[in-house]
Amino acid sequence: MKTVEPPVSPQRPPEYPLRRRLLGIMLIIGGLGWLLFELVSRGSIAGFDLQLARENSAQTLPVQRFAVSRVEVTGVNDQVTLSATDGEEVILRGERRGFGWAANAAAAAAAQITIEVEQRGDTLFVHVRRQPQIMWYFGRDPYASLELSLPRDVTFNVELVSGDVTLRQIEASGTITTVSGDVVADRTSGQLTVNTTGGDIELRDHRGGLKVVTIGGDTDVNGQFTDLDIQAIDGDVTLQGSFNTAVIGTVSGRVAVEATEASRLTISTTSGDVRFTGQPAAERQEIETIAGNVELVLREPLDTQMTFTTVSGRINIPSELSALSANSRSFTATFGQGRTVLKTNTTSGDITLRLYK
């Protein structure tokens, strides 16, 4: 019987394992060197501040003035503030900020930022540009901090990615668009449009019109509004103050409205609860939800035609009104002369009515 010997593996050259070890050592040294450079020059890894980059550099830019009627600002990871001025010119102030272990490293990081300013006709363009970085460049990025003082009625458009916008006492109309950035406004007036993705919106004491489209961010506004339109996906909406006409729509977001005075109000939600407090809108108020509960806390005296309907939810009304309820799925009543209309419809959500003087 013939014996078959197993195949013999080819002999690797003696230097092959050595080359593999050398390659591994070189990769380890390279990785450690890169890590050391990041810690020394930036002080953070993957967005986590390790408290090593204790130096920062703020390079202030010369103040510039422009006679324009519109301002356009674009940037990434930058901070923009719009404030008011009594003068007739737009005033631009700014600084470049960098971070590092040593002062020279922070200054070098700040130098990566270029603020391009150009006036074309009646429009001022401000664009923040930074040197391109490789995809795995971790750490705290340098950024530009800009403040533009706007005369009354100068229009504006601000577009930022991972940057915040602050508005202070301006009397101007414009549009703000952010991705992963917040918008905060205080004592502003004019027609304001805000579009955000992953950023919160907070307006305090705004006077004028407001249009909001937001995804994944909360909206909290108060003031005296003319026309108000808020559309939110996966974000809560809180509204306080007076308004002429308001339309609010949410998907997976709660709505809370506290109205001191209103003409028309429409609220629609998919799976968010609704709470309304105050006097019903003077002309018409409609609330509709699919899987959200509705709570109405109304101030007496009322002058309202009230209609509640639900498919599979419950209707809860004060005990003194129980005689007016025909069944647990609908409720109709007229208070006073019924000059206003209040309609509330739900699919699977409950409707609760509370009265107070």
From TrEMBL:
Keyword Transmembrane: yes
Any matching Pfam family: DUF4097
Sorted UniProt keywords: Membrane, Transmembrane, Transmembrane helix
Transmembrane segments: 21-37
Domain DUF4097: 118-353
Protein name: DUF4097 domain-containing protein
Organism: Chloroflexus aurantiacus (strain ATCC 29366 / DSM 635 / J-10-fl)
